Amino acid sequence: MSSQYLVGKQLCSIGRAVLDLVRSRHFSEVGAGGFTRSSLVALGVFCALPVAATAALYLSIPDETLSKAPRQVLTSEVVRLPDLRSQIAAIESVPEPIAHDIFVRPAETLSSLLARLSIRDAQAERFITIHPEAGALVYPHAGQFVSAVAREDGRLQDLKLYLDSSVTDRGTLVHVSRGDDDKLSLAVAPYSYDVELTMVNGFVGASVDESLKQNGVPQTVVQQMHSAFDYDRDLVSDLRRGDAYRLIYETKFAEGNFVRYGRLLAMQLDHDGKTTELFWFGNDGVGGNYYDAHGNISRRIFMRVPLDVKSVSSEFSPLRKHPVTGVVRPHYGTDFRAPWGALVRAAADGVVSFAGVGTGWGNYIRIDHGPDIQTLYAHLSSIDKSVKKGAVVKHGQVIGRVGQTGLATGPHLHYELKMDGVQINPMTVRLPDEGTLSPYRYAQMEVLIAPLRARLAILQKVQTAAMAQLQHEDAAGAGAPRGL
Fold first, then answer.
1. Residue 368 sits in a domain of what CATH number?
2. What percent of the chain stands above pLDDT 90?
3. Residue 48 is part of which domain span?
4. Is a pLDDT exceeding 50 seen at residue 32?
5. Which of 119, 307, 375, 379 stands 20 to 30 A from 213 (CA)?
6. Secondary structure (H, E, C), the chain
7. Domain count of the chain?
8. Residue that is last in its domain, among 192, 216, 236
9. Does residue 430 lie within any of the structural domains?
């Protein structure tokens, strides 16, 4: 509590006492003889009050508040900075590293790759070449992501090659580095990419593929959309102007750098008043496929047309005049006219029983697909290096390329299907199409696709709202007076 407050309180008490004293005396009763002694005393006290109050207030103020402001004096002093020239020279003497992030080009070699990374290091090139574990750097594939750091003198400091896998969500990192002791080391280890989900919706214009491209959908995702269906019932190709689509696909990053677009995980297609909804499920026991929400596969187990460019040039026939020999004999297969080098794919999962050259068929491949089911692919210009006797192939895997080897009048694929030892027409036969997931695998798929279905539902609501708004604006514009 402040001293000013205490003094004020005491003065108020004295004032009230003086007023009470004055009221108790009647000044009018004091005659010509003047004031009484008690009245004079009271009057003196009353007059002394202002003086006492002023003195009390003065005495209650601290001494420091009444003193004069302190005198300020400015002085200057020379400060000597430390000599940093040696430290600056040491920093400048350290070579500035050069960092690069690039993608491997087609027909790239190790030498051209190092040159593009500003690495001029014969020692590092020899080190990579003599280590079999670094084979992916010696023979890099187009599209692979490479990150490197080169010293100012061109020597390799750090080199990383990221190998993606189309089978699993994990990749492999090939890492070559130079330590403080100037020795090179090599490490090959699994690597997990940072994966973001990209969501896209839109409407089809004049062309399906062109509409997808204009909306930013990468070509690799468009190809996966088509591959989810059989060629002869490709719903993506059947989409028409005004049909809607909604997609969710992966975008992969390595150390904050975009690497590539990954798997198409989910899609919804609106066509002819129906909505087709498909999801990728990789743990189906057959390498992964697209399934609907009920666990039914989106395509047949067997491809009726096992190549990308299709045009039937000679049907399956019990009697046909051979175009080269002129002999009339059965034609137990289907010929597909296609340009030289067109990709030929395995019609279904299976094991290669023959891959090589045969009389009349030229380069051809025979694949066993299970109990008493075989397919044959003939007149190939080349056979993929991975396709050898005993090799396991998957549905849709590239096994060769169209050619004109053997007895053939032009480039085409001769395709045969044999069941129970009998050659049958692959275009009309009822193929084994049991593509429904088991209850156990379906339960797994349900858990995986639940968040994807929720995202697709959001995309659909946004798209529907946007379409309603557009229709409303069109209707309002049509009803507006001319000239507005």
1. 2.70.70.10
2. 39
3. 3-62
4. no
5. 307
6. CCHHHHHHHHHHHHHHHHHHHHHHCCHHHCCCCCCCHHHHHHHHHHHHHHHHHHHHHHHHCCHHHHCCCCCCCCCCCCCCCCCCHHHHHHHHHCCCCEEEEEECCCCCCHHHHHHHCCCCCHHHHHHHHHCHHHHHHHCCCCCCEEEEEECCCCCEEEEEEEECCCCCCEEEEEEEEECCCCCEEEEEEEEECEEEEEEEEEECCCCHHHHHHHCCCCHHHHHHHHHCCCHHHCHHHHCCCCCEEEEEEEEEEECCEEEEEEEEEEEEEEECCEEEEEEEECCCCCCCEEECCCCEECCCCCCCCCECCCCEEECCEEEEECCCCCCEEEECCEEEECCCCCEEECCCCEEEEEEEEECCCEEEEEEECCCCEEEEEEEEEEECCCCCCCCEECCCCEEEEEECCCCCCCCEEEEEEEECCEEECCCCCCCCCCCECCHHHHHHHHHHHHHHHHHHHHHHHHHHHHHHHHHHHHHHHHHCCCCC
7. 4
8. 192
9. no
pLDDT > 80? residue 474: no
Residue 258 and residue 218: Cα distance in Å, rounded?
13
- Is residue 437 within 8 Å of residue 446, measured between CB atoms? no
Q: Which amino acid is at 379?
A: H
Residues 260 and 163: their CA atoms lie apart, in Å, by 11
Task: Work out the end-to-end distance of the chain between its first and last CA atoms, rounded to an integer number of angstroms.
Answer: 77
In a domain, 84, yes or no: no
Q: According to the per-residue pLDDT averaged within each range, which of 268-282, 405-419, 459-473 is highest?
A: 268-282
Do residues 347 and 431 make contact, with C-beta atoms less than 8 angstroms apart?
Answer: no
Last residue of a domain, one of 192, 218, 245: 192
Which of residues 429 and 55 earns the better pLDDT score?
429
Mean pLDDT computed over every residue of the chain: 80
Contact call for residues 438 and 281 (beta carbons, < 8 A):
no
Domain CATH code at residue 470: 3.10.450.350
What is the band of 30 on the pLDDT scale with cuts at 50, 70, 90? very low
Q: What pLDDT score was predicted for residue 64?
A: 52
Q: Is residue 224 domain-shared with residue 181, that is, in the same domain? A: no
Instruction: Report CA-CA distances (Å) from 26 to 14, 130, 337.
Output: 20, 128, 139
Cut 0.90: pTM above it: no
The residues that bridge with 420 in the sheet, in sequence order, are: none
pLDDT in tens, 238-296: 999 999 999 999 999 888 888 889 899 999 999 999 999 999 998 887 678 899 999 99
Which pair of tokens denotes residue 79?
């400060």
Residue 74 within a domain: no
